[in-house]
């Protein structure tokens, strides 16, 4: 992750929206539009304890210009002190989450032309302490994630009778957790969660859905341990299913579903002395 703009960036030619270039059809789609957008960035420094205020920049955009491109442009041409965090620029690293026109989004994955506004307002993610400008502190978020033991735990990583061979999984086994493994830990769901806003000890949608992701993996046998971690007054029961986490996820993960599935596992376990393996067998027998 980087806090300043990438070295070497800036070789690209920036062309105003409605400036026609001979032989370049792409420019024509913006002929009825404006040349520039107004970029508003909420600034502030937690170390200097300065009052937060907006800085505005006029930025030329093209059809495919992303909000991250615009921020980098403003940083390189107007004010190098704008603090932003980014790395991959392809919605994979989860570094560039921010509030864009009121909605948590990835700046590198948000095209300005698709926002449909002349003004683009960027603010740091709520539910995270702000370090400076658009850079927030993810320590608490990652602590919650780590607390869920987000890795496969298994006394016997491969079936004993097939030692030194791979652990085979059927497509159905994989389907139990696949969508949750697409999480890039961008924190957008965490920033949108109304329960996190009122209780910082609540693990949040990302951590809870990851607890489900590993528990639902048939290579793992630590589900009971994870259920004990989430079964407390600041834990899974505090979710009141607002669903905003799933609405903002840029990777198509449905953390609200993960939380409900984890709850159903928890209730099954508390109501019956049967082990999860027994429950899975009953489920399989019904099919
Ligand atoms: S569940 Fe989605 S929104 Fe939440 S951290 Fe993972 S990728 Fe980001
Ligand atoms: S820069 Fe990596 S997700 Fe946006």
Domains counted in the coordinates: how many? 2
CATH fold-level topology of the largest domain: Fumarate Reductase Iron-sulfur Protein, Chain B, domain 2
Q: Which class do the helix and strand fractions yield?
A: alpha+beta
Give the oligomer, counting copies of the same chain as homo and different chains as hetero.
Answer: single chain
Broad CATH class of the largest domain? Mainly Alpha
The N- to C-terminal Cα distance equals 46 Å
Beta-strand content estimate: 5-15%
Instruction: Give the H and E element order.
Output: EEHEEHEEEHHHHHHHHH
The number of strands is 7
CATH architectural type of the largest domain: Orthogonal Bundle
Largest sheet: 5 strands, mixed
Order of adjacent strands in the largest pleated sheet: 2-1-5-3-4
Description:
32% of the residues lie in helices and 12% in strands. With 287 residues, the chain is an alpha+beta fold. The strands form two sheets. Strands 2-1-5-3-4 form a five-stranded mixed sheet. Residues 86-89, 91-96, 106, 108 line the site of FE2/S2 (inorganic) cluster (FES).
